[in-house]
Specification:
alpha/beta, Rossmann fold, 3-stranded antiparallel sheet, 25% strand
Length: 324
């Protein structure tokens, strides 16, 4: 199936075609270390402020530890669970004592971030990759504040970088630097490879935030395996120009990952409608795949405040887990 536009075919099976006329101009000049540090520091200040004032409680209430650690004993009080009685201490002291436990809070959090070429697109003052970095930064600082370990996996059409989970501010800042400034060798998107790698190197159950625009083929088999092994949350990063074309006449679209170009006439209402329909079809298929594998999902858009969507998701998840 192809869309007719100015005599050219528009491939209805591809959703990587983005209007290069709308894409932000990227400065090809390498940034100095001082500029990089300033950008990382600004992002740290913003996201840490959000963590401290608005988000930390949401994160803490949703992600529970793996178990309970024995802390101490105390005298039995009416209403205490009989199964918590420490019979050895009770027999030795002649008075009933119960065990006190504290929740094992430490979790392993993995940020899996798509750094394929399509992430460089942004029709507003923010690219998809910049939004992904900011959201990942917020999640990383939330995890560190909660005494969790954080790791990073960057992927394109290959696994680009893996940073094992650790704690600490300097480790978190390294993760943010890599998300923002890492230069991938690949341009395409292969989430199946990333998930296979994750399942090999992270053997214990982890909280996985998978951040991508999901402009890719089917990866449901690998997703099914990862969804069973880990607490898996998909974060879908989108841009409005990937869903709707403006009426600006004849433009050239370029596949960000292959470099293939086509020319279409956006003044043609049918062309614009088919473009939007294709985007909706792809989004619906992704949602079906996620639901089929019981994967929670959050949808975010460049240029929009992401905090309400994140907080709404965490509140809904907390309520759902509370009734289980």
């Amino acid at each position: 199936m192809a869309l007719s536009a100015s005599g050219r075919g528009f491939p209805a099976t591809s959703n990587n075609y983005l209007a290069t006329a709308f894409q932000l101009q990227v400065n090809d000049t390498r940034q100095t270390p001082a500029e990089i540090l300033r950008k990382i520091r600004a992002l740290e200040i913003k996201t840490k402020g959000l963590v401290q004032t608005a988000f930390a409680g949401d994160y803490h209430s949703v992600f529970k530890g793996r178990g309970m650690n024995f802390q101490d004993v105390r005298e039995y009080e009416p209403g205490d669970e009989i199964r918590t009685i420490d019979w050895n201490v009770t027999a030795r002291l002649g008075t009933a004592y119960v065990k006190k436990f504290t929740e094992e809070r430490e979790l392993t959090v993995m940020l899996i971030v798509d750094v394929s070429a399509s992430g460089n697109f942004g029709s507003v003052s923010q690219s998809k990759r910049e939004l992904a970095a900011e959201v990942a930064c917020l999640l990383a600082f939330s995890a560190i504040r909660n005494n969790d370990k954080v790791g990073l996996l960057l992927f394109s059409d290959r696994v680009e970088l893996f940073i094992p989970p650790k704690k600490g501010r300097s480790h978190t800042l390294r993760i943010i630097r890599e998300i923002l400034f890492f230069e991938p060798a690949g341009r395409g998107t292969a989430p199946a490879l990333a998930l296979d790698y994750l399942n090999k190197v992270v053997t214990r159950r982890a909280v996985v935030f998978f951040v991508s625009d999901f402009q890719t083929g089917d990866f449901s088999r690998e997703l099914s395996v990862s969804g069973r092994r880990h607490d898996f949350i998909a974060i879908h990063i989108q841009d409005q120009r990937e869903e709707m074309l403006p009426n600006v006449g004849i433009i050239t679209l370029e596949d960000a990952e292959t470099g293939e170009q086509i020319e279409i006439n956006t003044a043609d209402r049918t062309t614009r409608s088919r473009f939007s329909a294709l985007a909706e079809t792809n989004r619906a298929e992704l949602n079906r795949t996620l639901r089929r594998n019981s994967i929670d999902a959050i949808s975010l858009r460049t240029g929009e405040d992401y905090l309400p969507a994140l907080r709404s998701f965490f509140k809904q998840r907390e309520r759902r887990l509370a009734v289980r």
